Request: fold
Amino acid sequence: MANSALWSEGSSTFTEQIGSSPTLSVSLDPINLWSTGNLALFTTSRIVAVTLTSDSPVNILYSTNGGVTFSSFATNATSGVVTRSISLNIGTYNLVFKIEGEDTEYSGYQAVVSRLVILGSGQSNMAGAGSGASEPLYTDGSGNTSWLLGMNDVAQPMKNVWCDKTDQVDDFLAPVGNPGNAWMIYLANKLIAEYAEPVICVPAARGGTTIAEWQKDATEMRGDTVPAGKNNLYMSSLRRSNLVGGATLNLLQLGENDALSSNSTTTTEYKDGVIRYAGFVKSDMGLDTIIVALHTLTGSNWSGNGTTTGQAGIRAGQIEAANEDDNIFITEPTTVLGATGGDGVHLSNPVQMDGLADIALASLIQYIEGEEPVNQPPVANAGPDQSVAAATQFTLDGTGSQDTDGTIVEWRWTQTAGDTVTLNLDDPARPTATSPSKTTSQRLTFQLVTVDDEGAESSPGTVNIDVAAFAVSEMLKLLDTRQWTVVNDGSVQAFEGRSNREAFRFLVTPSDGIQTSAEGYFLFDQPGVHAVEVISTPTSKISSVDDPHMIRGDVIAARIGDLQTDENGNLTLTFVLYVTDDKDGLVMTAKVIEPYQKASYFRKQG
Reply:
């Protein structure tokens, strides 16, 4: 809560002003139906948006278990729309949101994640027309039950009236007559008992329709022209499937009207229509079409001639379509129980509906478990962006990458921007590197591609590492506290007047915050180092300012022969390091010389 105090002019009092408490508005429906999009997937991700009103940055939390435990939704969020991708496994969740430090909880949001998402296409039997006793919904011990996307596009628990006329978005999906107790409720209950997972149903059925009216380009429905601005049957089913993230099973129960003797749809016409329809479904939804075989119709209007028209001819067309097209699967047996009693067309009692659900369940189990799962590529997560100091170790983090149907076996990191750094890939999911050291800041960008155990590659994930500018004054503070060990390549020999160079390296301990070679030697050519001097007497010295070749990475290559001995003929070396803007110099006191050698000085003869 924002607080401030204002001086009231002409008064001796202060007026305290208290800002309003922050608030959230969550862009979720009371019930949210989320498909995994594939039978082989057991998790899904959704972008959730909340609108924050706050006078200052706040942390937003969310819970998936009704507020028992909370996780971070966003940190330091400011007023406006805040989004986050939430990943959930199959199940039912009670989502709660809150602002850290505030008492108010924003609840009443249910999320149902399912891979058993049925698009129910076809005629009035699929929609639930006819009569029959109400079948109660089944809920297993884990709370899994069946859910429905109503014809008004509103999610709700599955109900006995499976497909009604209430507030429909696509008017032409209204069923004929009064809806009854759909056999799909029986099927949903059996699927829950079989797989212990929630089931989502998307009705897309309309009584009295033919296969010609279920084509993607159909312009008529039940003999009427589809009104301008309205979807035909196929486009409505596609739209509604997309509302839940994509159906995973498409059940087609269609053929009663094509079997009417007055329509005389031939076997070939029906077969070709089903194949064309199934092609649209495969292309647009990625689904096979599972045909619920036409049941036995007991009225005389469906007898046809017994071969190419009527119900026998339609069943033959269904079987031929499944035999000719790999995208079509037909339930077994191909001749199902009859619609005895009632009007001879609609399933009229619980025994018939339960029997058809048993047949469909056996077919779905065969289809679900017999289908070769399509390997899904992994999802690369290169970790959060970071801000680091110059010349410090940082860690890239790809452990948030996921493979929903296998295992990630390879993490491929590529640097795409900034000064090149070397990655230590001992742990390929979390490689390390040392940030560059420059007097200007820069951004390093890395790309991560993950590979799963079947060789599928992810789309690249990206992470930015913002490296701060190197602070020279900080370097001087660091170096002044370090221990130095000088190492030379053998005996130190100086020949007066000759240009021979002796090589010296310095181990610095500890080395954190300082650039060193792989062996731990100080790098003299790193940013911030201005010059190096080697002094033998107060009046004798050599400097890298005069001899640029004196500094070679981690080596001081000094021409010792240019130095003078002291009055006793001894050569004692002192090394001085100058950091940019430092005029005094830092004496690199060596407590140990390895290997220990007294410097030998050879004077000119004669």
Observations:
- Helices lie at 124-127, 183-195, 233-243, 267-285, 310-324, 350-370, 472-479.
- The CA atoms of residues 426 and 432 lie 9 Å apart.
- The first strand starts at residue 3 and ends at 7.
